[in-house]
Amino acid sequence: MKLGLSTYTLTWSVGVPGYDPPLRPLTAEALVGLTRESGLGLLQIADNLPLHAMTDEALLRLKQTADAHRVELEVGTRGTDPELLLRYLGIAGLLGSSLVRTLATTPDLAAAEAQIRQVLPDFEAAGVTLAIENHGLHTTGQLVQLFQNLRSARVGCCLDTVNSFGALEAPDHVIRALSPYLVNLHVKDFEIKRADHMMGFSILGTAAGAGRLDIPGLKAIAGASGKPGVHAILELWTPYAGSVEETIAVERRWMEESLAYLRRVHFTEEEDSHYATGNVEREGL
């Protein structure tokens, strides 16, 4: 299972709304370089660094940078508006992404399903997979029903290991229920701490391998799904450390610790099949 970074690995370095901006915000092209420096060949650019705000010329420059660094790109947004999804299908084509990650932002999954059905033939024709993330707004049962209703090889689950706490569901249940529909994996570790007054709990992010997530078990279940081409993306919920720059330092340290742990449990960084030594070759689209 190929391992990659995300704009949500280094969220504070990109910038968090409501907080001071970083002194040197990470751009998409800088993230490509950091991905390669980290020994990886995969970067998922999600909605916190919106690609639809870039011109086609800027997107093509990003693709050239990614090709030069031998980094495969995956694209992401949020919402199921057909116009937005078709825009991201076009962006996927420009950047060579075989996947568009999104999430349903309406509580009414029937409405989201109707919107997805409008664009599904375009995704199927392009050979691009729409990965719908569990984001805590819907239960796993509701998402399973959505995937069963759509019945398409080009729609599946972007499985986040922590988000469904928002739907009062624990990771072991979520992982087992959604793994049959897995097309993308967000590895995010966590800790649960009781408040100092003993009345209540907080769910906090940790570096991968430092929290409660059973990552070897996760890898075994994900691997047993049998789907080729499922990638594992490291995400971090790094808590605010008093200042943005101090938090960025923690975030970077956690990234390095997480990658070291994930390599020890045999998440791999094999050379991307999109690229051949000495020559960049695009498959598929």
UniProtKB/TrEMBL annotation:
Pfam families hit by this protein: AP_endonuc_2 (PF01261)
Entry-linked InterPro entries: IolE/XylAMocC-like, Xyl_isomerase-like_sf, Xyl_isomerase-like_TIM-brl
Domain Xylose isomerase-like TIM barrel: 109-257
PANTHER family: HYDROXYPYRUVATE ISOMERASE, XYLOSE ISOMERASE
Name of the protein in question: TIM barrel protein
